[in-house]
Design a protein that fits this description.
This protein is α/β, with parallel strands linked by helices. The protein has eight helices and twelve strands. Strand 6 and strand 7 form a beta hairpin. Helix 2 packs parallel to helix 3 and helix 6 packs across helix 7. The longest helix is centred in the middle third of the chain and has 23 residues. The chain is globular, with a radius of gyration of 17 Å. The relative contact order is 0.10. The model has no long low-confidence stretch (mean pLDDT about 90).
């Protein structure tokens, strides 16, 4: 069963989300605050595919829960629920390890589409990990392991989220080629993605913090002005 955690303190919104995800075939686990969400995670022994976290909650907010979940499980998919006026919340959530965000108010079809896309990525990662899939891609001092979804830099492991891994896989498959933001968006989030293109830029910022010696002066993930980015190792 496809397991998903929904953490939202407003009962009406939570019920709305739970009903639509249940109809879409998900086994939904509910939590009305951050502490309860982490307890539910532990009760299920971390056996969750996706977590939907509201940003604004009393006590432990969605950011704190996102950070803790990502520290415990690099493979879980995380979607943040943000208000339309909370622009910085979107960036902050992504920088803390979220894979995507959905802006309130949202339609059931949009939410389910985002969850489905993220679930597919998580499932693919699990399938590769559990199989004998051991292929690696090498680029300079970097090695991308396609089985356990990890990146090595000079032998040192760099933990990646599902989204970060897919971006790196796209880079490694196209070394030295300038990749348009739209191409990256379509490859990682899918052509049906209805969010904003800037989600690419935020994830690139996050990746630079992990792979670059000097994130403010990147030499591996290079900006191609007016187009997008390229991998140069």
């Amino acid at each position: 069963m496809k397991k998903i955690l929904v953490c939202e303190d407003e009962a009406t919104i939570r019920d709305f989300v739970v009903i639509n995800l249940t109809r879409a075939g998900y086994d939904v686990i509910e939590a009305d605050n951050g502490d309860a969400a982490l307890e539910k995670y532990d009760e299920n022994n971390g056996d969750l595919d996706v977590a939907i976290l509201d940003v604004m909650m009393p006590g432990k907010d969605g950011f704190a829960v996102c950070k803790e979940l990502r520290a415990r499980n690099g493979g879980i998919g995380i979607i943040m629920l943000t208000a339309r006026t909370q622009e910085m919340d979107k960036v902050t959530g992504l920088m803390l390890g979220a894979d995507d965000y959905v802006t309130k108010p949202f339609s059931p079809s949009e939410l389910v589409a985002r969850v489905d896309a993220l679930y597919r990525r998580v499932s693919l990662a699990k399938a590769n990990f559990e199989s004998n899939f051991k292929e690696e891609i090498k680029s300079g001092e970097f090695v991308l392991n396609l089985r356990n979804r990890t990146l090595l830099k000079s032998g040192k492991v760099i933990e990646l989220t599902q989204v970060e891994f897919q971006i790196m896989e796209f880079f490694f498959s196209n070394p030295g080629n300038a990749l348009d933001r739209t191409d990256i968006l379509n490859h990682v989030w899918g052509e049906a993605y209805v969010g904003e293109e800037k989600i690419v830029d935020v994830n690139i910022r996050r990746l630079r913090m992990k792979v670059e010696d000097e994130p403010s002066n990147p030499k591996y993930i290079v900006t191609v002005w007016g187009l997008g980015y390229k991998w140069d190792a």
